[in-house]
Fold this sequence. Notes:
327 residues, 2 domains, 13 helices, disordered N terminus, disordered C terminus
Amino acid sequence: MKFEHGAVGLVLALVVALVGMTLFHPPAGMTAAPVAKPGLPGPAASPAGKAAPLDWRPADGFFASPSTSKLTDVFHSLGYDFDRIRSGEGRVPRLFLAALPADMVDIRESKVRKSLFFRALLPLVLQANEELLADRRRLWHIRYRLLLGEHLKAAERLWLAMMSERYGVERDDVDALLRRVDIIPPSLALAQAAEESGWGTSRFAREGNAVYGQWTTAERKGLIPRRRDKGTTHKIKSFTTLFDSVRSYARNLNTHRSYRGFRKSRARLRRQGAPIDGILLAGQLIRYSARQMAYVETIRGLIKANNLHRLDDSRLRVIKPDRKTLI
Length: 327
């Protein structure tokens, strides 16, 4: 009997010890699935197998801003050809810049500046759209289950409440959320970024990653326009990264009352099974600028002149989960 009690005690002691070791030193392979950060997993490999000439490293999934010449080298090493992307022959690399190159303003040839600007912004726009589509798919799944009379789990109810607050709709109004949680056509996002930031050369883009000219009345975070009208107190909203600016822009179009027509037109295209057309939806952005219809025509002109409508079907490259590399 004493032996049995002793054996049981020894087993319990071993269990306690193992649990303690697990808590303080969890096995790396069992605690979480490997997650690939957005961006490159290291120095970019060229088609010839040589490393691209990088002296910058990713931080929090984003790359610090290199010079325009080094960024051009990186694009080349990745086979990131803008004309091929527009023709639908390839996918866009997951290269996410924290900021545009500081020497964008020094590029004299407009064609070179345009190509660099579009290639820098496009992955960010597509990443923002991927996030929106993921939320949209989840909303459709919840809507389907509710129609079947099923009860949502606590985590689903909490997520739905959070989304309702974020997008400014009544709690649990899934249909209202579906009208707001949707993509922004890349053609429209790129054209507006080019117009609002002067192809990435404006002071707001260089100092605050503000490529969409969004206003803010917050006391701290913002840049004061040099030619602000007398009596006005607005600032241009600044951001930590370019991606923060793109996300904020998408949320602005998806929530602000001034763009209700934009959202209605987009929802109509969804019901018709038609493409989300940037040129068409640009017509609903009259209130984005004091120039109103002249601004709309400028945006449409940029889309057409640069064949940006061909980018509305573009996609980011897929990450192989077992290798955490780009394919």
